[in-house]
Predict the structure of histidine kinase.
Amino acid sequence: YKNNIIRKKSNLLLRDKNNELIIAKEKAEKASKARSEFLSTVSHELRTPLNAINGITHLLLEENPKKSQLHYLSSLKFSGNYLTTFINEILEINKIESNKTELENINFNLRELLKDIQNSLKGIALKNNDVFTLNIDPNTPEYLLGDPTKLSQIFLNLINNALKFTKDGNVTTSVKLLSLENGKATLSFAITDTGIGIPKDKLATVFESFSQGSVEINRKYGGTGLGLTIVKKLIELLGGEVKLESIEGLGSTFSFALKFEVNELPLDNEEKQKP
Ligand code: ADP
């Protein structure tokens, strides 16, 4: 709130002192709005036919295709899924950047949320022969108020990356309670892996859109180069800041801290909605 006032005040100063600057700012805002609307329209228009392509590919794959057809259909399925992820990520970034993302504030169980994510990614851990660990500080309050969907998105992206870039190694998600005061808990989260690491000269840019390690890494591991952009923006939206420490060849740690209201008497969200 305080920040807003300061920002508003500085806008006023800008208006008083230098009219040209204000005009430039308004132009930039208009251009940004037009860009955002264009991106949103194009992405939505692409999504409808893509859903048809994905759906029909799925049906054909279920009809016992011949070996040669299976090869083409699998390739079609991969490309369809890639494009779907890509379009959804563009829409997501666009939504956050145009301040259209709304935050939920509901009761959730952090331990359950993290366990569900671990379970959903178990297959990748198994495939890559990774030791997959979840370390939760026993003092962490069980029930919190916040936005579990955004939080899941952040963890899914970071843990998925950690597993993807780690073969025969360790991927650990840890939660530490930093403070518990006036019904508010500050928690620090870290996702650590012993994978390929990130070169020093790439550390500053991995959070930028379409930034990927290198052509070879991209070819080998796939991906859109948008996941970390979304992670950074979502963490900031929740009031935190993402930090990255990584050594090429040794592994990476992505960490951030967030504050939550503690829900002492957890009510089932469905219960709450009952009349
Ligand atoms: P992608 O979809 O390509 O994985 P991200 O935005 O999630 O896109 O990541 C951007 C790039 O950062 C990746 O292509 C990879 O080079 C690097 N990266 C992200 N996480 C890790 C990690 N845990 N270990 C090594 N490199 C990583």
Observations:
- Confidence is low (pLDDT under 50) at residues 1-10.
